[in-house]
Every structure is written in C-alpha cells, then in structure tokens.
C-alpha cells in the first residue's frame, strides 16, 4: 500500500474482513537462526594464597584468613597485587569458581615499609574484558583455571562467552569452539565485575529535637544542612533528605522511608524552611557497561558533623547477556476479497465532497465500476460491509503486496448503502490483525516486505492472504 497516493484519505480501524479461509496456511520458514560460537576470554594471572598452619602473624593479617608468605608483591609504583584465596574445600582443584565470599575471596596487597597492607574486596572483580562482538552467558561468571608451574600455582581468570550471536543451547555447560580470546584493538566491554554505584552525598534530616536554629518542621533536626547555609550566605537552597524514622550510620532505607525536601532561606536572617519536592530527584549516575542487580537503597553515613545519605545500587558490569537466537517465520492470517480495478480505481473514482466542517473525504463516495463484483460478495456472505484489497495493477498467484512493492494496491472498505448502491473508501496504513504464532512476536523492525498480502488461489478464485513475519526464539 502506498500512503502517498491520496493525501487526506480517511483512516478506518476495527473493520473485520470477510475471509474465505482464516488461518488456513501453515507458516513458512524465512530465515534460520544464526548462532554464535563459544569462546573463553582470558584475564589476569593471579597468585594464590590459602590458610596455612604456623603462618607467621605478619603474613596472616586476618584471623583464619589466607597466608600471604608466598606472594611476590609488585613494586609500589605498579600498584596493588591481586591474590586469589580459595576456601579450604576448593584447594587442590584445577578449576575454582562459585559464589564470591563462600567459595573464594580476592585480596589486593600493597607493599609498605613495614611489609604490606591487605584489603579484601567487597565484591568480585576481574581483569576479564570481553570483546565487543561477544556476550555473557547465563550462569557463566568468571572462574579461575589453576595452572601448576615451577614457581608455584597460578590462577588464570577466565569467562566463557558467545561471540557473534547467542549459543546453540539455553543452558551450560558450554564447550569452547575456538581458541581463547583477549580484547582486540577495538577494546571491549566494561571489565567483568560487581560494582556498587553511588550517587552524590546529600544532607539528612532526622526525627528528633535539637537546638531551635537547626530544627526543621518542628520535629526534624537538620544541623549539618542548616550549618552549611549559615556559613555560606550566597547559597540560596540545597537538597535535603528526611528520614521518616530515627536512623543511625550504616542503616539502608528504601524509597518509602524517606522524603525529599528543598531547604530554603526565609526572609529572617538565619531562618530556614523545608519544602517538599513535587517530583523526587535522583543523583545516581549509571556506569557505562553496568546494569543494576538490585533496587536503589538509601545509605546513611556518619561524618564528623552528623549524618548524611546517598543512593547506592549493586551493578553487574561487563558484557551484556547473549541474545536468544531467533528464527524468522512467515505466518498467515485472513484471506481478503480482491477488487481488480486495474487503473480505473484512481481515474474513475468520484471526488469526495466536503463535510460541513470543511474537512475533505469525510464521507463515503460512490464506488468506481470496478467495485461492482464486491456487491454480490457482500450479499453472499451476509455482510453490509467488508475490507477488501484493491489491485491497481494486474497481479498473479504468489505475487506479494506490501508498502513499496512493484504492484500498486490499496485496502478499502466497501459498503452496501440502503439504496442498494455501493460505496468505497480507502483505509490508510491498514495493518491486518490476528496473525499469531505461539511464543513468537511480530517482526516490527523488518524490511517492508515483512508484512502485507500474498495472492493465493482458493475456492476457485484469487484472494489476498494477509501475512506477517514473526520472530521466534529457538529456546
């Protein structure tokens, strides 16, 4: 259908076609699913530390923690040295993975004049950077291949990914189909890790009594915020978050446990008021390559002058999950009656008259002579109106009609009038509904030929069978 043929033609929706054989044809495969290949992506090589009896205290800073006496530290100028510490049950294996904190831990060691400082990582992290054309696989987080070398065991970071598309199977285990990968010259996704993303720290008002000058709305105390405005007279207002219940440092609140205010100056010197925000404001800025794993929490933090609060959320960082491979199928709907007008439909169609409000094309117009065949069709099917496909050029069986196709066509509503005359009007942008395949969705982003009509022969006459391409996941 070519929408530019009749500017101002009426748009009609909800008209049901009278079909010969609704949903009569089986879907046809248009394009097979395209699968990616499974690879390992390698990261850093880590030294390994495990708990050991009789470890000198200076090499075991954490009680019952790993013994770092075998770790060779990098020079301070090169930064921290990452160390893998498997839990006791994992020792002696050639592959270490699982839940962070339960099956293994990571430490960063930094040399000092007295020896070293050890910092346990709160969340799992790695130097695995997945290339841009590859994707993460569900259940395949970073693991560690243990290599037994002359100088000692080494843990090599590794993540199994799919490159060039989704994998052939929905669940692992997956077997690599090619050599291990490292980031190419174009780089890759964010390193694979867990990261707690934080928003800007804000002032916090807490329920309770305090000195009158710091009291807000009688029952809240906002000493840090009020003090800042007193000491910075050029600042007119600032963000203020109010806790609805008493809190202490370390508490994590949810959205319904806080209110957002704006602390403003009154006309009287060093006098302030708090107005509620009409719309809550977020200062949490996402990190490229990271997606939230949890809802936002409001974290209460203690500082020298009182309590503050900010938004935080744990994020998963790295390659996005692999897409599910899909097959493209052509599914069919109703068969529409064909009105074969040749070129008479446009040339012979009377011009529509104006409505009372001056708009063009508001009423049906008497149909051109080529619509005469629609009258018996409507009477035979017991309908007063129907949606039909109008051919403006000759078409044969298996020809396809779609926006931009080489065959010009239209979709129109034909109607039997009380005086037994026939009226017709074009339907702009008509899209047949009711085409369905289980577990599939319409391919709305497909090429123009992905939806339209195909000429078929049924019951001794030609029909325009509606079709639409469908995207169907393979699992």
Automatic annotation (TrEMBL):
Residues 1-22 form the signal peptide. The keyword Signal applies. Residues 164-189, 348-367 are annotated as: Disordered. Residues 348-363 have a biased composition (Basic and acidic residues). It comes from the Bacteria. Keywords: Signal. This is Uncharacterized protein. It comes from Asticcacaulis benevestitus DSM 16100 = ATCC BAA-896.
